[in-house]
Hints:
Elements: H1 6-11, H2 18-28, E1 32-38, E2 51-56, H3 62-70, E3 88-93, E4 97-101, H4 112-127, E5 132-140, H5 147-159, E6 163-168, H6 175-189, E7 200-201, H7 210-218
Parallel strand pairs: 2-4, 2-5, 5-6, 6-7
Antiparallel strand pairs: 1-3, 3-4
Helix pairs in contact: 2-7
Amino acid sequence: MTERDPEEVREGAGDHGQAQLEEGRLLFSAECQFLLSAVQAEQVPASDLPEIAFAGRSNVGKSTLVNALTGRKTLARTSNTPGRTQQLNFFDLGDRLMLADLPGYGYAKAPKADVARWTRLTRAYLKGRPQLRRILLLVDSRHGLKTADHEIMKELDKAAVSYQVVLTKTDKIKQEALATVIVATAGELKTHPAAHPDVIATSAQGGMGIAELRAELATVALPRQAG
Length: 227
């Protein structure tokens, strides 16, 4: 296995030019408003905006990443307790993009009936939301892809829903180990037809990959209005 140069790892995956990085900055500098929390499928908001969903195992850092992208520390509620997010939380980003923060799957400190309920809701949403442009599948860089991630990826492949792996908490792993995880993850994604080929490595604490991820999401948002 060939390791990537540490400098390349620090810059994140993908080829993002300055113009695209600026588009991402402008998109996420807009006002981001919390809309609602859905606990049932009929509560999911009707919208014509392109939508991005943040999915991943419990405590992988979904809410923390939403906050880092928008530059707002408390926009999405965070917790060190796995399974704290138990609803689908929706945010309107400048009338150009809808963000959906989803409950974690896998281990959670919650009653089994509650876990089963929000797991059903999340999976129904992921496979039945026509305006959903991409799912960001968050994976803890210290652990890599786990069984629960593989199961979700297979479901999304079958439903033909586009997803992109975003590695989180890269400030907690050595650069050499991170390079190995990136290469292994990218290799695994080649076998999944609905997977975006680029892996983006991020650190909400250190800022790594945040600008690149903003740029990536700007490509699916509605265009900026002139003037």
